[in-house]
């Protein structure tokens, strides 16, 4: 309750002059506040209390003291993004990441983070955003790849083929582009009512071989080639490439990530093929017995 201005008590006047201004001037220095905040965020992250970490970072966005410095404001925004990713809050993470992509369209890190968020999202808000962004930046390879991925997931293979082809004209040194072209032709060849299946299979294998030449013969490339033949039901070729993949050593472990070993996936797919072949041989044997 504010004291009356007509109050003649000098003690009240002194209280109004000396106490009220101190409310807007904290005794703790700003650097100490920032250090306390970052330390608390690290502790919450180590203890995997991601929901509280997200609430903490979003609350700090309302601090005028923290947001006055542009560099600190950018760091605060990025900390909020990481907290949303850790807490699987893809809705808020996408809102933050969208602004970062608009400000930094040439940054591959931004596109990688956006792709990570999109893969966990439950909605498709990003489709329209990426299409609008294409008109502003038609030459961005990462943007073209994401548009192609969206069309591929939606089942519109011709549109994804157009996106990947345009990107391949711009960057012919990236092995993921011929891989996606080969997979798109593979999906088109596997459609029930698609025409000229032979031509589609030939084009799919041509792009997949181009991918292997660019990527090199390794466990990953041999597995992808075997998986494509497996999907096309070319089982002898699939077994051949799966065995080549098993002979290749797994990718070396990097300091920033785990060791990538596809041996289990390869063995599982081989088991499926052998199981299917054994059932076919049993059917043939039973039919021959019935006929005889």
Automatic annotation (TrEMBL):
<keyword id="KW-0802">TPR repeat</keyword>
<feature type="repeat" description="TPR">
    <location>
        <begin position="219"/>
        <end position="252"/>
    </location>
</feature>
<dbReference type="GO" id="GO:0000127">
    <property type="term" value="C:transcription factor TFIIIC complex"/>
</dbReference>
<dbReference type="GO" id="GO:0006383">
    <property type="term" value="P:transcription by RNA polymerase III"/>
</dbReference>
<protein>
    <submittedName>
        <fullName>Uncharacterized protein</fullName>
    </submittedName>
</protein>
<dbReference type="InterPro" id="IPR019734">
    <property type="entry name" value="TPR_rpt"/>
</dbReference>
<dbReference type="InterPro" id="IPR011990">
    <property type="entry name" value="TPR-like_helical_dom_sf"/>
</dbReference>
<dbReference type="InterPro" id="IPR039340">
    <property type="entry name" value="Tfc4/TFIIIC-102/Sfc4"/>
</dbReference>
């Amino acid at each position: 309750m504010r004291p009356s201005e007509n109050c003649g008590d000098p003690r009240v006047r002194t209280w109004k002059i000396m106490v009220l201004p101190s409310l807007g001037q904290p005794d703790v220095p700003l650097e100490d506040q920032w250090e306390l905040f970052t330390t608390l965020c690290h502790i919450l992250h180590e203890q995997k209390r991601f929901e509280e970490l997200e609430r903490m970072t979003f609350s700090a966005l309302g601090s005028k003291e923290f947001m006055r410095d542009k560099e600190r404001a950018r760091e605060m925004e990025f900390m909020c993004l990481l907290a949303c990713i850790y807490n699987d809050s893809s809705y808020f993470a996408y809102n933050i990441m969208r602004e970062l992509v608009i400000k930094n369209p040439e940054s591959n890190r931004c596109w990688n983070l956006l792709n990570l968020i999109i893969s966990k999202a439950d909605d498709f808000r990003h489709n329209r955003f990426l299409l609008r962004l294409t008109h502003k930046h038609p030459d961005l390879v990462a943007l073209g790849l994401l548009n192609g991925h969206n069309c591929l997931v939606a089942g519109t293979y011709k549109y994804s083929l157009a996106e990947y082809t345009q990107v391949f004209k711009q960057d012919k040194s990236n092995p993921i582009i011929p891989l996606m072209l080969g997979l798109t032709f593979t999906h088109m060849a596997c459609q029930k009512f698609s025409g000229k299946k032979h031509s589609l299979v030939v084009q799919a294998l041509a792009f997949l071989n181009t991918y292997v030449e660019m990527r090199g013969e390794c466990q990953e490339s041999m597995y992808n080639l075997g998986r494509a033949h497996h999907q096309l039901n070319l089982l002898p070729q699939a077994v051949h490439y799966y065995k080549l993949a098993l002979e290749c050593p797994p990718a070396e472990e990097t300091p920033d990530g785990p060791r990538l070993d596809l041996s289990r996936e390869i063995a599982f797919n081989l088991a499926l093929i052998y199981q299917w072949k054994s059932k076919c041989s049993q059917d043939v044997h039973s039919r021959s017995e019935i006929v005889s």
